[in-house]
Specification:
Oligomer: single chain
CATH architecture of the largest domain: 2-Layer Sandwich
CATH topology of the largest domain: BirA Bifunctional Protein, domain 2
Helix content: 40-55%
Number of strands: 16
Strand order of the largest sheet: 1-5-6-11-10-9-7-8
Largest sheet: 8 strands, mixed
Strand content: 15-25%
Number of helices: 16
CATH superfamily of the largest domain: Bira Bifunctional Protein, Domain 2
CATH class of the largest domain: Alpha Beta
């Protein structure tokens, strides 16, 4: 019987596993510099936690089951409810505002496709206790710095909108079924123009209203990125006679753009009045990140969810957040040639020319590891030529050869696997010689398989 990963699940082999760790380390460091403190929540939660947030429909998308205690539990499909639950448990002792970052593995029972798997990793940023747009700016600025830290400068754009503005549009167009109107907008990019028009009609939007809405969307798509593009579309919206809630959403976006302009982030923003974000708990500004070439669906998204903490019994606490998934981020990094394509390699491989020196190799490896070098040795008692091939396969920067003649003199052979240079060095000076060689060589190149001469 042959066993393979389940559909929608993945194995990660060297060097991809360590390169993924490098990407996560970059995200983590950027979050740390931005003042986010790391939290960690369980992988298994009460299913009720997600029913409260998203309703009964969430059950179809979860890996949920009844545990041995008769409780309905689920592998966590998204991290925001867990973080909100954690905040509620700390609400009386945790000074606000708080800025939290979490790195977690999530599970959703969806049909796997390009950019979507059933198991994935996610970095989430959440800010609690900030009612103004300073929180949204902090999220967008940190996300920008995360992407730039991965070498994606100029490769992404954020689309921004406000859920209250959508309500204002619905009111101005006299939409009869607002929920269906929002669902149609949320599905717009997945539908043909004809299908989209039909869904708007089913939502109760008149032909004149559909034409007016289409003109607004066309103008927004033609408008430039940044503050100028927002001002252009805003001028048209101001002539619509928006309701009070719609005007409030537009005014909040204007405040955010003003801050973003001063901070230098607004040029990467595009105002998109059709952006909905499907999750029902968003209450204000929403945003999504896209690659500029339009090759992928949304890289990630987020927004303001001021009612969620209260929904979980924590009182009225303003909140907003975003979540960056690993799957589409990796796709973009690979397509742009920014995925880290390198092996960890070893600093030192300790080889022996005589089986009698194997115990000494063990001692030397332990010594090097304690001094901060990555080091290993042959565990199978293979001939020297096989050991050298193993050192090359493992991208070892240096090989230390223990040979009888040199050992009698208190020395050993140190070979640089990039240049092929080898020196006889005293055992006591090995760490200094390795440090000097590593500093002189800089980034590693491919290692060669040849055995040191004189062995």
């Amino acid at each position: 019987m042959s066993f393979q990963p389940l559909k929608g699940f993945r194995d990660f082999l060297p060097p991809d596993a360590s390169n993924r760790a490098r990407v996560i380390a970059s995200l983590r460091e950027t979050a740390r510099r931005a003042g986010f403190e790391e939290v960690e929540t369980p992988s298994l939660e009460s299913l009720e936690l997600f029913k409260v947030k998203s309703g009964e429909g969430i059950v179809e998308e979860t890996f949920s089951f009844t545990d041995k205690g008769g409780r309905e539990v689920t592998l966590v499909p998204e991290n925001t409810p867990s973080v909100a639950r954690l905040l509620v448990s700390r609400i009386k002792v945790e000074p606000l505002p708080v800025k939290w970052v979490a790195f977690c593995r999530l599970w959703r029972y969806e049909d796997p496709q390009s950019g979507r798997t059933r198991e994935f990793s996610q970095c989430s940023l959440d800010i609690f206790g900030v009612p103004g747009v300073e929180a949204e700016l902090e999220l967008l600025a940190t996300a920008s710095q995360m992407l730039e830290g991965l070498g994606l400068q100029g490769e992404f754009v954020f689309r921004l909108n406000d859920r209250r503005l959508l309500q204002g549009l619905s009111d101005a167009l006299a939409v009869k079924v607002p929920e269906a109107f929002h669902r149609a907008l949320d599905r717009r990019e997945k539908l043909s123009p004809r299908e989209f028009d039909q869904e708007l009609e089913r939502a109760g939007l008149s032909p004149e209203g559909r034409e007016r809405l289409g003109g607004l969307f066309d103008r927004a798509e033609r408008a430039p990125d940044g503050t100028a593009g927002f001002a252009e579309v805003r001028s048209e919206l101001e002539r619509w006679g928006l309701s009070e809630i719609g005007t409030e959403g537009l005014r909040t976006l204007e405040e955010l753009y003003a801050l973003g302009e001063r901070a230098g982030h607004a040029p990467t923003w595009r105002f998109d009045p059709s952006l909905v974000r499907g999750l029902a708990y968003y209450t204000g500004i929403v945003f999504e990140a896209y690659d500029r070439k339009g090759e992928l669906r949304a890289l990630f998204g987020g927004g303001r969810y001021d009612k969620l903490v209260e929904l979980f019994g924590g009182g009225s606490v303003p909140a907003c957040g975003l979540a960056i998934g690993d799957v589409r981020l990796e796709l973009l990094l690979r397509r742009r040639g920014r995925w880290p394509e390198r092996s960890d390699g070893l600093d030192v491989y300790v080889a022996t020319a005589d089986g009698a020196l194997r115990e000494e190799a063990l001692t030397l490896v332990e010594r090097l590891r304690r001094r901060g070098f990555s080091a290993d040795r042959d565990l199978l008692g293979r001939p020297l030529a096989r050991q050298m091939r193993d050192a090359s396969r493992r991208s070892s920067a240096f090989v230390v050869l223990l040979a009888p003649k040199e050992r009698e003199q208190g020395s050993l052979i140190l070979r640089n696997m990039r240049s092929g240079r080898q020196d006889v060095v005293p055992v006591a000076s090995l760490e200094d010689a390795l440090a000097a060689g590593r500093a002189a060589e800089g980034p590693r190149g491919p290692a060669g398989p040849d055995a040191p001469s004189g062995a």
